[in-house]
């Protein structure tokens, strides 16, 4: 089937009901913490404030977005959280031939088309002035122009189809962060396909038809769904030393998710259960489905390779996936690589006992990739 005709013919939801969805999740999510009460109140306030903008943006732009044709199959970056997906995406989208979903698009999901670049500049000025930081990335200043994840965008639209409800309500992570329990429901699966396609049409419309480079870790288990929509899509899977990744994932939960995102309190034991078991789940789902990707459309690389020689790795991606235009993109790529050197990684105090637990839990994956604890 011709992909562009398929995409053009599909239609997404006309109306999203954010107040209903937020209330439904609140009723099903389980007990919230005292701090979570304020998070919920802020979330509802955000929804109420955005309602008139949501309606106006829908009236003005929904028809144009529905008619948008995705003529170029996207490039999907897959990989577990903290495996280097963000770094890889930022390097790739330094090539101006590619489009992406930005932080501004996600943070102002219901009004970004109404106010455009001028308002983005105003908000970036305020962020810089008040030094508003991103706890996910070592408290670096939020840059609205940088790429973000489709599941973040859907979460800010209060969509039923974001996996990140499992971060807001971590006690329900097995049902909401893991996708398979929900995708077994045919109605949910069809709804996700429609809403995700709407997201990509919006992104294509905003980027004036450019080929999209997309990164959302939950997509690591959605290969079959993505291939149904885009049979000729390109995929890049990035993996990382599990010994180091454990500390990074746990730090992400402690500093960012539980600090700012979640409305529930969980114990250290519950947190370790999420960290270990979700990695096993997500990696296992990828291994089950990666053979569905047509030959020549999947490239795997390690975070360590990417950091050691970023320029060569990106060049190999262009070559391996038959992406055009590397020579034209090389100058901007080098500038982005230089810019990324300013980022300071989190520092961790490694523990032999923790390494032994990681070996016990993730030994299969450690041996497959020939990693060690150094």
Mind explaining what this structure looks like?
With 374 residues, this protein is of the alpha/beta class. The protein has a single domain, classed as Rossmann fold, CATH 3.40.50.300. Helix content is 59%, strand content 7%. The chain has 18 helices and seven strands. A five-stranded parallel beta sheet has the order 2-5-1-6-7. The radius of gyration is 20 Å and the shape is globular. The termini are far apart. The N terminus is likely disordered.
Low-confidence stretches: 1-15
**Percent of residues in helical segments?**
55-70%
Count of discrete alpha- or pi-helical segments spanning 4 or more residues? 18
Q: Can you tell me the CATH class?
A: Alpha Beta
- Beta-strand share of residues: 5-15%
For the biggest β-sheet, the strand order reads 2-5-1-6-7
Q: What do the pLDDT scores average to? A: 93
- Tell me the major beta sheet: 5 strands, parallel
Distance between the termini: 49 Å
- The Cα radius of gyration reads 20 Å
- The number of distinct structural domains comes to 1
Q: Structural class, from secondary structure content?
A: alpha/beta
How many distinct beta strands?
Answer: 7
Query: What coarse outline follows from CA principal-axis ratios?
Result: globular
According to CATH, the fold-level topology is Rossmann fold
Give the CATH H-level superfamily.
P-loop containing nucleotide triphosphate hydrolases
The CATH architecture term is 3-Layer(aba) Sandwich
H/E order of the elements? Answer: HHHEHEHHEEHHHHHEHEHHEHHHH
């Amino acid at each position: 089937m011709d992909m562009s005709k398929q995409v053009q013919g599909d239609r997404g939801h006309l109306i999203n009901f954010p107040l209903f969805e937020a209330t439904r999740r609140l009723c099903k999510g389980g007990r919230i913490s005292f701090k979570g009460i304020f998070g919920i109140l802020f979330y509802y306030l955000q929804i109420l404030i955005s309602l008139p903008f949501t309606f106006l943006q829908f009236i003005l732009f929904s028809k144009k977005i529905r008619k948008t044709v995705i003529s170029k199959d996207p490039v999907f970056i897959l990989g577990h959280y903290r495996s280097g997906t963000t770094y890889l995406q930022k390097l790739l989208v330094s090539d101006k031939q590619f489009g992406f979903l930005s932080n501004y698009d996600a943070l102002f999901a219901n009004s970004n088309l109404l106010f455009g670049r001028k308002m983005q500049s105003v908000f970036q000025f305020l962020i810089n002035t008040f030094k508003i930081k991103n706890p996910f990335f070592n408290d670096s200043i939020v840059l609205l122009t940088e790429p973000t994840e489709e599941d973040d965008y859907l979460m800010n639209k209060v969509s039923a189809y974001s996996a990140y409800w499992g971060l807001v309500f971590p006690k329900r992570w097995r049902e909401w962060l893991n996708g398979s329990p929900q995708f077994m429901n045919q109605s949910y699966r069809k709804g996700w396909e429609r809403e995700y396609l709407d997201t990509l049409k919006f992104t294509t419309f905003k980027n004036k038809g450019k080929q999209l480079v997309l990164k959302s870790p939950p997509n690591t288990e959605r290969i079959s769904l993505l291939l149904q929509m885009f049979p000729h899509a390109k995929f890049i899977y990035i993996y990382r030393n599990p010994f180091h990744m454990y500390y990074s994932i746990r730090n992400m939960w402690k500093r960012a998710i539980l600090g700012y995102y979640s409305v529930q309190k969980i114990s250290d034991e519950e947190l370790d259960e999420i960290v270990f078991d979700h990695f096993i789940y997500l990696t296992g789902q990828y291994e089950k489905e990666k053979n569905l990707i047509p030959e020549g459309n999947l490239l795997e690389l390690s975070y360590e390779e990417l950091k050691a020689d970023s320029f060569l790795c990106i060049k190999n991606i262009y070559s391996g996936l038959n992406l055009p235009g590397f020579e034209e993109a090389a100058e901007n790529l080098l500038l982005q690589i230089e810019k990324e050197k300013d980022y300071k990684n989190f520092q961790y105090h490694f523990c032999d006992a923790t390494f032994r637990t990681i070996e016990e839990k993730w030994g299969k994956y450690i041996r497959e990739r020939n990693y060690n604890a150094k």
